[in-house]
Design goal:
With 680 residues, this protein is of the alpha+beta class. The chain is 25% helix and 24% strand. It has 14 helices and 23 strands. It has a 7-stranded antiparallel β-sheet. The relative contact order is 0.11.
Length: 680
């Protein structure tokens, strides 16, 4: 679409009752990001109330018409998706505005590949609009859906605001109070405005690797302030009170520690893979049906409407001479219409079988079902499908094939019970029981836990210098590494309640296969696997390097020196922040044009001045690194590679990154502090 053009949805698809709007962008540095927002407007072009404004802390409408689905990584950046159930939009809503905003002085001109797409409930893209003229704007309207009679149409807008989302929100009827200068200069004492009705709670049993101070509710101090509506209210809030599990577990009545508490979903008795699949499918589907927030979160991205959900297991369906029995069926009813998905489950690292999935795709197409959902320990990668299926183009009815990993299921459960909350205490307890089951060693639902058959030959080939570029086994190892990193992001995000995404650095337009082939060639040449993670609330990108030649894992982060601070002051402040960090932490000073001083934290603590460049060169920041021995086996045993990566990331985040706080972030100047507040 061209800027300013419009298109009717009914001319593009027969099924536009529910659509998925996707916003995409990338950045050369890999750390550019934005937050999406949606506004429902009446015939006057204004919101009816604060409840018509949806953002990261108010992600869903009570009637299911709007659901912010969150970010998913792509090969060039990230994609933020929004589910819109057009059949549930109130009749007095005339327009749905889709926008995004940035904070901390960033602007959309710093991002590349700005694009909005709209797809139907089957996942088929109907239209797209690329924005090529973004500049200094800190908020952008990508497009809008609007009514024309009985039809919904989409208009490509591409209009920005230099005043941030505050200016955009004001235009659409959300009043904003200016902060006083004193308030703006002390952000730590200002209550966050766009905050849920109840604060997020930590886990009942917080993981050892993540201290309490690592889990933060507030935005960084340099994030945009947020709007305050008229009438003294402190900003838009979620529609209903949320309930989380208590922060501290109740005192046990057991006589000794050997007594095991009763569990709703026991796992120790499972002996075979078939038993694990049956139990895992039944447990998951039953909780999805009983906890609406959880069921909706797992199915909304697949085009399911917000409605009454029922789930079934071991359903027999006719298929030629031999009936087939998918592991499960999900049905959602809304306004008299049914959305149906067949579910195929694998546990314990067992791979999905293409012939099974193909049978279910054929059955779904013949019976008019909307989707087939596969569920296994594998993590799906863009451009690398887990199973290859054929689609009969002659069939008018189209079936979408989606994949969930057990790690993603656990991530969504963690986000709800530990950070965002659910409707009532019973639902929170159900999710806690589900999470306990998934994490049990005998459940078979541990996520990606095996680097594959190519891992050992590739390591041996690197060790003996016999691995050649173009070896297909190296590509398989790169794919396994990418799956592992995506799972690490899911686990970190669930523990911290923050967005954690892998950073993909590739030339614009590079397809996933070509990118992985290039990384495989680098692996053959250098003997190293590399990855970068972007975690909200941290002052830099977390880098991971697995050196297969030396058998060492390196986790590191580069942080900028505070602007306007003296070098020695910056060095002393860094040492103070790292008071609880490991003594073997490597600290390297980053200097323009040359290598800077380096040493262990143990040596530098008494003499921070040793971190300063001796020749007067300009110091730009610091690189902090920890090293760990790398596991040798391909699986998840104590000596396994995957476990060693998990442990290295956990230790580095908890003992180093979580201690840094806002170090190196640019402070807001006085002129910025007195501007109207903006929504992030």
């Amino acid at each position: 679409m061209a800027k300013g053009s419009n298109a009717g949805l009914t001319a593009l698809s027969d099924d536009i009752g529910s659509v998925i709007v996707s916003l995409r962008w990338s950045s050369a540095t890999g750390d550019g990001d934005a937050d999406v927002s949606v506004l429902l407007l009446d015939d006057n072009g204004k919101v009816r109330s604060d409840a018509d404004f949806f953002f990261y802390n108010n992600p869903a409408a009570a009637d299911g018409s709007v659901q912010l689905l969150g970010k998913t990584p792509t090969d060039i950046g990230s994609e933020d998706r929004i589910s819109l159930d057009l059949t549930a939009v109130p009749p007095n809503v005339e327009r749905i505005v889709v926008a995004a905003s940035q904070y901390g002085g960033s602007c959309f001109g710093e991002l590349d590949d700005l694009r909005v797409t709209l797809a139907d409930r089957s996942g088929e893209t109907l239209l797209g609009f690329s924005i090529t003229d973004a500049g200094v704007e800190s908020a952008f309207i990508f497009g809008e859906l609007y009514r024309r009679g009985e039809e919904w149409k989409f208009r490509a807008i591409g209009q920005g605001y230099e005043t941030g989302l505050a200016g955009l929100a004001t235009d659409f009827g959300i009043a904003i109070d200016d902060e006083s200068e004193d308030d703006a200069t002390e952000p730590a004492e200002v209550e966050p405005v766009l905050k849920a009705e109840e604060p997020r709670a930590l886990a009942v049993e917080p993981p050892v690797a993540f201290p309490a101070q690592a889990v933060r509710e507030e935005r960084p101090a340099d994030a945009n302030p947020t709007p305050t509506p008229t009438g003294g209210a402190r900003g838009p809030r979620t529609a209903k009170k949320k309930v989380t599990l208590p922060k501290v577990a109740r005192k046990t009545l057991a006589e000794n520690d050997s007594w095991r508490p009763a569990r709703l979903f026991p796992a120790p008795s499972l002996k075979s893979d078939k038993e694990r699949e049956l139990r895992a499918t039944s447990v998951l589907l039953s909780v999805m049906a009983e906890v609406p927030e959880f069921g909706r979160r797992l199915t909304a991205a697949f085009g399911a409407p917000a409605g009454r959900m029922q789930t079934f297991t071991e359903v027999t369906l006719p298929h030629g001479e031999s009936p087939k029995r998918p592991d499960g069926v999900i049905r959602v009813e809304r306004a008299g219409k049914l959305w149906t998905a067949l579910v195929e489950t694998k546990t314990n690292g067992n791979p999905l079988k293409a012939d099974q999935v193909q049978n279910y795709m054929d059955i779904a197409a013949r019976r008019g079902y909307e989707a087939v959902i596969t569920l296994s320990n594998d993590v799906a990668l863009e451009g690398s499908p887990l199973v290859d299926v054929r689609t009969d183009g002659r069939r008018k009815h189209k079936v979408a094939l989606w994949h969930l990993s057990w790690a993603e299921v656990a991530h969504q459960a963690q986000m709800l019970i530990r950070h965002e909350g659910v409707g009532n205490a019973a639902h929170a307890w159900l999710l806690q029981e589900l999470l306990h089951y998934l994490q049990h060693e005998n459940s078979g639902c541990h996520g990606f836990q095996n680097m594959g058959p190519a891992w050992v030959p590739v390591r041996n080939g690197i060790d003996t210098e016999t691995l050649c570029q173009g070896d297909r086994r190296a590509v398989e190892v790169v794919e396994s590494w990418e799956q592992l990193i995506r799972q690490v992001c899911l686990r970190l995000g669930g523990e911290l309640g923050q967005k954690a995404l892998p950073v993909q650095r590739a030339k614009r337009g590079t397809d996933p296969h070509s990118r992985r082939t290039a990384l495989a060639d680098r692996l053959c040449e250098e003997g190293r696997l590399t990855a970068e993670l972007r975690i909200d609330g941290t002052p830099g990108v977390l880098a991971i390097v697995a050196d297969l030649r030396t058998g060492k894992l390196r986790t590191s982060i580069e942080i900028q020196a505070p602007e306007g601070s003296y070098p020695l002051t910056s060095a002393k402040r860094l040492i103070r922040l790292l008071a609880e960090a490991p003594a073997d932490l490597h600290v390297e000073t980053l200097v323009e044009g040359c290598s800077g001083p380096r040493g262990t934290l143990e040596r530098l603590r008494p003499e921070p001045a040793d971190m300063l460049p001796k020749d007067g060169a300009r110091m730009t920041g610091f690189r902090l690194s920890l090293f760990k021995g790398m596991g040798a086996t391909r699986g998840s045993a104590e000596s396994g590679f995957i476990r060693s990566v998990d442990e290295a990331v956990d230790r580095f985040y908890a003992s180093v990154v979580a201690q840094l706080g806002p170090f190196g972030r640019r402070p807001a100047n006085r002129s910025q502090a007195t501007e109207p507040a903006a929504v992030s």
